[in-house]
Amino acid sequence: MTIDQGKLRELIARPVKPAAGDELRRDGNVFFVGGALPAQETLETLFDSHCQAPAELFHITFGDKDSFHKGEELARLIKKNFHAHLMARLDWPAPTHFLERAYAAGVDIVDIPLMVFDSAISRERALRKEERLAALEKAKEIFPRWSVTSTLLVGEEACCSTVSAIDLLLKSGIVPLPEISPRAGSYPRQEIGEVFLHLAEGLCKRKVTTIPLLPLLSLTTPLVEARQSGILKGFIDRLQDRRLLAASDLRRSLRVKQIEESFESAGL
Predict the structure, then answer these.
(1) φ, ψ (nearest 5 deg) of residue 189
(2) How far is residue 202's CA from residue 210's CA, in Å, rounded to a whole number?
(3) Separation between Cα atoms, residue 125 and residue 225, nearest integer Å
(4) Tens digits of per-residue pLDDT, 78-108?
(5) Dihedrals φ, ψ of 148, to 5°?
(6) What's the CA gap between 163 and 14, in Å, rounded?
(7) Is residue 19 classed as helix, strand or coil in its secondary structure?
(8) pLDDT tens per residue across span 113-131
(9) Which helix (H) or strand (E) holds 239?
(10) Which pTM value belongs to this model?
(11) Beta bridge partners of 60
């Protein structure tokens, strides 16, 4: 992959952000859904847009512990009514039982953002980093391989820190998702681009399964294919995407069934 310099300039000027709690919008092939939205009205809007042009990824931003159930309900309805990958962003270090609930509701990919990696700035930031890294490790025990991600803000701290975060996450089996910070304009554009090139090299080296994330990466990063994809490659990618989605649904069904049987045998 290579850097589209024009796209990089646009993203630095207008970074793409996930949905706020009460926001619903579509960018390209991605639906950004706020977890606090009313379920029925949201579902009707999604249907109208999806019927005109099917989306490839639904991205829900879950709320905090008190409003988690709203995002959970939306996730369950979306998974039931649309044949597409479902991604959830949790902006807090969710404990295991919340991660289990998100997975059972239909979430295929979970994102627990680190945002920044340099924890030397404050004790509070260091604690937050450790809590989120621990939550990411827990999520890996629940979600399939390369289905746990962590958003990193590029341009919010020194680019070398972001590169270190990319390396650490990939080594741990977590997919880094660099997102351009509104403050990225204070760094040389070349440095920002090199962070994304480092990501692309790491994804290739680790043989990360990126097909489900490509709709999001095409929006939030300046990375593009070095060569245009042919018709045959596009067809193969779609087949692989369907296979991954079917495998994810089967794995979830088996895991949920196993948990339910465990509760029943314990008399709970």
Answers:
(1) -60, -35
(2) 12
(3) 36
(4) 999 998 999 999 999 999 999 999 999 999 9
(5) -110, 125
(6) 22
(7) coil
(8) 999 988 666 677 788 899 9
(9) helix 231-265
(10) 0.88
(11) 33, 88
Across the chain, the runs of DSSP E, i.e. the strands, are 2-3, 24-27, 30-34, 57-61, 85-89, 109-111, 148-154, 175-180, 223-224
Amino acid (one-letter) located at 69: H
151 contacts 113 by C-beta, under 8 angstroms: yes
Helices (H), 83-213: 96-105, 123-140, 159-171, 189-205
Q: How far is CA 239 from the centre of its chain?
A: 21
Burial of 158 (0-12, 13-18, 19+ CB in 10 A): middle
* Helix, strand, or coil (residue 115): strand
- 237: helix, strand or coil: helix
Tokens of 62: 């879950």
Q: Which residues of 48-80 are buried (b: 16+ CB within 10 A; e: fewer)?
A: eebeeeebbbbbbbbbeeeebebbbebbbbbbe
CA 264/CA 268 separation, integer angstroms: 6
In whole angstroms, what is the distance from residue 96 CA to residue 98 CA? 5
Burial class (CB in 10 A: 0-12, 13-18, 19+), 22: exposed
